[in-house]
Every structure is written in structure tokens, then in C-alpha cells.
Amino acid sequence: MHNTKINVAFALLCFLMAGVGLAMGQGTVTGKKWDNTTLDFQGPATSELAMPNPFTYYRLDVTFTHEDGHPIMVVPGYYAADGKAGNSSANTGNIWRVHFAAPKTGTWKYSVSFKAGEMVAVQDNGVSAGFMDGEEGILHISNANYKLPDNRAKGRLQYVGKRYLKWAEIDRPFLKTGADSPENMLHYADFDGTLDAYGKLGKQYYRLMKDWAPHQGDYEPSAAEYTWKNGKGKNLLGAINYLSKVGVNAISFLTMSIDGDDGGVYPHLVKDDSVFIARSQESRSWINAVHQQRFDCSKLDQWERIFAYAESKGMFLHFKTFENENVWLMGTKELTMERKLYYRELIARYAHHLALNWNLSEETNVDVALIKKTASYIRLIDPYQNHVVQHTFPLGHGKGTQKPTYEYYYPNLVGQQSELTGASLQLQVDDIYTEVKRWVLASAKSGKPWVVANDEQGGAGVGVTVDENFPGYTGKMKLDNRDMVRDKVLWATFMAGGAGVEYYYGYDTEQNDLNAQDHRSREKKYQDAAVARKFFESIDVESLQPLDDAYAGKGNYALGNDSLVLIYMPKGGAASVQLEGKNWKGMVVDPKTGKTIKQISIAGNKISAPNSSQDWVVVIRK
What we know:
This protein is 21% helix and 26% strand. It is an alpha/beta fold and 622 residues long. The two termini are 48 Å apart. 52% of the residues are buried.
């Protein structure tokens, strides 16, 4: 999986046998810049169900200090059972693990803190637990030679105080065109400890467990190192490979769906299988079926293999950590021990990935104070300072109101009021351009520009429908809305200054947000999205600003600066633009193909598209 794994206890033994002390700088181990360097320590032998609880009673942190004195990074670790649980399904062992993705080449010193005490994992207390506590070592990090689309060729995706995240290695903005569905991507039969659950559509129940069989043929043998237990995982790896090939660069997934729409995704250790086999929304799985302070080591190792492969394919990982139905289970106002423990486990295991965000909840309904506390806690313990967002939904907040929830949350979170670095917008399609633009501008005005994405479209029923040419398309559920999606979702978001989109598969469509297993159902929409993203990647999009609604006429979108103006015309035709000075030249681009159709002259600030039969993009340069 392209990482460097070091058994530190074994390495130390070798050093001692050779008569060389670590303080002398000998016994240096090596890794690659931006890669996952994994350090394994031999700690106390224990198990997932042991007392004391290894997930709460111990806390492993490793401090990495670069030879220049900066940066200094404190990286949380976790209990890893036997160190190979993804293949062995072990629930016992003495391995404790840390993942380190070095942002600089050179020599790094690491020092180990291993503490013990009641709930020490989420509290700043405890005493030395012995074993590796106090150990020190040396890492030598050299440059790597990864090739695109691998994220390691681009470096870490960072929030830099602008409306786009930027790649650290290549200093370019990130534009997102992703798959928001199915939200239960990880409800996969090949994962350990993942049990059946059933959803309800009308009066019918249907199985939610996935096998990802439609993407079996998309698996490539080069991905074999990411499989587990004699070839498990191939179909989901195939789905990710397909998405990459069609131009998708982001995947979204719940890591906690207990008592939610799906009910079958959870990092916690199962204690009662029978509750999950019941209808998910009629059970209380959080109360009855899982150990709330214990995690499934082998399942989470297997998740890591999927995420590592996705990263090699250039994917952004959208961690949706809760959903509307379950975000309150760990408290509604206070930051509980269970919530802290949950985020610490996610961060320890997955924060080293280079392109991700922590979404605090899909469609949240908790107190705004809890959002602030959670974002602050993540910022405190995530050594990589990954992007943090909050999703909302365009329905009323509380009873008896139709006011969208973002009207309640975002005004109290924008700017320095919280540690959020962006917004994950769910909007009615007619509001996408206006609201993306609103929060891009409002956050900029606050002094802390947000990275704003449109991650869910419309009400729950429609979203992005199945392509007309897809074999499963019937037209009886919802008609193909490709043109509308390209206009009111895709180009509306980018032209408003948004950072990107993810496509949501509506419940009233074939291959919906819960039962989808074939991403080819939206292939044409993903192809359109790839065209748009490549178009914006080819220009200096950071220098452009969303322009006044009247700039290019009603119904058109305008984005520009003093020397470059983009006009998106959903219905073609002609428009008047407010260009200052002379010497402007234009060209018309087909948003379906990205190809330039013709050059045009600008006469009296008038522009014209070839016809009114489709949408067009006019690029005007001075």
C-alpha cells in the first residue's frame, strides 16, 4: 500500500544488539515525503473487549520534530490488535500504531508518550503506562516520485485562508466534482463486523448491504495490495477505479449511520447482531447493539485499505461523521466523552490522508455551541489541520418554521466564531447559485473565507437522476435531468465562486442514495462535471470574483476580474455585459465538451451565443 511500516520495538532491539544508542543518531529509518509512514510499537497485550478498555485507558501520542525545529507535530495513535487485523480479523494483540505523513524532507526526531488512566484517551491526564513511553527515534524522509493522479504527487490539501483548498506540493487550487451517494458506501459485505440492515421505500423493505457487484469488472489487478483476506474488497476498489476514470475526484461516505437511514455503518464493536438484522430505523442500535467506547480493529483496517487506494487514484475523502438522525446520540449541547473518543479514533487512523474533510454531520440538528466545540476539538488533535465543514439542509429549523437551517447555523459559525473552514451546502436547485455566492462573499467579508461546496441538491426525492441511456433507466421514477444539473448545480456552483459539487442520488430514483451500487447510472453527469472542472483548472480561477447578478443579464452567471470575464448562458441567446474600456475579445465554449466553438467580437458590450438550443460559456479576455 505504498507505506513504510516500522516495528519500533524490533528496531530498538536491533540497535541495542549492535551496541548503538538512538541518542547517537544511529539506526535511522526512512520514509517518503507525503507518504504514510507507519510506526508500530509493542505495548500491553490486550483485546477489544479487555478490562481496562484499551480504547479509553491508554493514550498513545508521538511527537515528530523536524531538524529545522519546525514543524512540531503531535500525532495521536491507536490500538491495532495484532498489527495485521485487516487480514487476520484479530481482536487481540499488543500492537499500537501511529501514521505519519511527513510534509518535509530531512531528518525528523520522534518521541513517544504512552499514558494510562481512566478515560485518559480523551483527557489530559494519566501516568506513564511504561512500555514505549519515553522512547525516541529518528526518521529520515526523502523525496518521492509519485505520478498523477496519486495525491502524493500533489502533497497535502490545505486550507490557506482562501475560498479554495490548495495542494501543498504544486501550489494549485482544488476543484471538486464528486459522488455524494450512496451515503452508505461502507455498508459492504466484505468488511468485518458489518451486518445486514434494511431500508423502507413505501411499504417495501429492501436490503442495504452492498456487494458492489456491478463494478466487479472495473477492478484492476494492480490494486491487489489493497485487498484483504485472499482478495476481499475487489468490487469496491473497482467502483473507485471507475469513478476515477470517468473524471470524479471525490467520494463521500458516512462513517456512522447507526439509527439513521441505513443503520449498517459504524466503527464501533458490535455486541448484539440481532438488532442490526431488524429494520434499521425501528431499532435502537446505538443503545443495544454496539459497545459505545470500543472499536472494531479489523474493520477499520479494511476501511483504511479502501481509503489508501482512493488516494492513489486522486480522490478527496469526504468523511460524513454523523447524519441528521443520529448526530444527537452522543449529546446535543456538550462535547461528550463518546464524541471525543469517536473523533480521536477517526483522526488517529485516517487524518494522514492528504485530501479530506471532516464533515461534522449531514443535516445537523444539534446546538450551534456543540458544533463550535466539536470543530475546536478536531482542530486541537488533528496534527494535519484538515478541512472542517458543516452540512445543513434547506428545511425549517425547529417546529413551525420554514426558515432554512443554514439561516440559523452559518451566521453563528462564519468567520472567527468557529474553527470551521467551509460549508457543505444542501440546497434546492433554484437556490444554488444565489446561496453559494452568498456564503462565498459573506465569509470573505468576515475575514475568513470559507471553502463552499454544493454537496446535495434539491429535496430528498430527486437529486441527480439516472442517465437516460443507463440500462436501469425506466423514466417511471424521475426523468433524466442532465441539462438542469449542468446548469443549476454544476456551473451555478463554480460560477458563484464555489469550490465544487458532489452529486446526490435521490430516493425516488433508480440506484438511489441507499441502494445504489452502480455509478454508471450517472455517467453522463459525471462526464459533464469533469469537463467543467478541467475548464476551471485551465484558468486562474483564484483571481476571479462572482459578479453582480445584473452584470450579464437575468438568468446568466458571471465571474471575472479586470482582464478576464466568464459568462455562462443557460439558454444561449444574446446578452449585454458591463465591460470597462476597449480591446476585449471573446470565444464561445461548449460546456458539454469543453471545446471552443468559435471566436467572437465584442461590439458595444453585446455578446451572442451560437443559438438558444443549449447552454454556452463565453470567455472574454482583454
